[in-house]
């Protein structure tokens, strides 16, 4: 294996280890600072930039290996048609079989490296979104402590009771005012009747 394919294999192995660490079920209090450091650290940002450049070279190697694999496969088919190579039979062209194997290996190696880089990027993004959602949920659910929330409920209940008592007091005052008005109206009618009777009696005496 050449030096650049060896480096690609090391990159693939490191991606597999990183993926295992990302999906490992860590507690939220541990996962949050780790991912915060990875997303905000300038050192990690520089490493990520270098990895992006390396993935560009891996993509070039992938297309080159893919082209070689197609070419070697076509040569193997041509050899089979002309009867110069028979897989699994005596007289097989070992050089052609080795070239085919290496081309396929390099294609799979670079292809899986690129694919796993996309998986890692998406997994990291989804994990950050999950952490942010958990923080928002915690703020919504635990914005006020149970004692504080119970204290607020007690205060609201006390305010409602005070309002109800005030309304009952106003209702009683209104009933009292109605009774007083009725009594005053009855007293006015009684005095008016007496006045009319007295006035009528005086006028009758004058006529006599």
TrEMBL record:
It is a multi-pass membrane protein. The chain crosses the membrane at residues 7-27, 47-66. This is Endoplasmic reticulum transmembrane protein. May play a role in anterograde transport of membrane proteins from the endoplasmic reticulum to the Golgi. Residues 150-180 form a coiled coil. Residues 155-208 form the Bap31/Bap29 cytoplasmic coiled-coil domain. It comes from the Eukaryota. InterPro entries: BAP29/BAP31 (IPR008417), BAP29/BAP31_N (IPR040463), Bap31/Bap29_C (IPR041672). It is found in: Endoplasmic reticulum membrane. Belongs to the BCAP29/BCAP31 family. The keyword Metal-binding does not apply. Residues 1-139 form the BAP29/BAP31 transmembrane domain. Its main location: endoplasmic reticulum. Keywords: Coiled coil, Endoplasmic reticulum, ER-Golgi transport, Membrane, Protein transport, Transmembrane, Transmembrane helix, Transport. PANTHER family: BCR-ASSOCIATED PROTEIN, BAP (PTHR12701), ENDOPLASMIC RETICULUM TRANSMEMBRANE PROTEIN (PTHR12701:SF20). It comes from Mycena chlorophos.
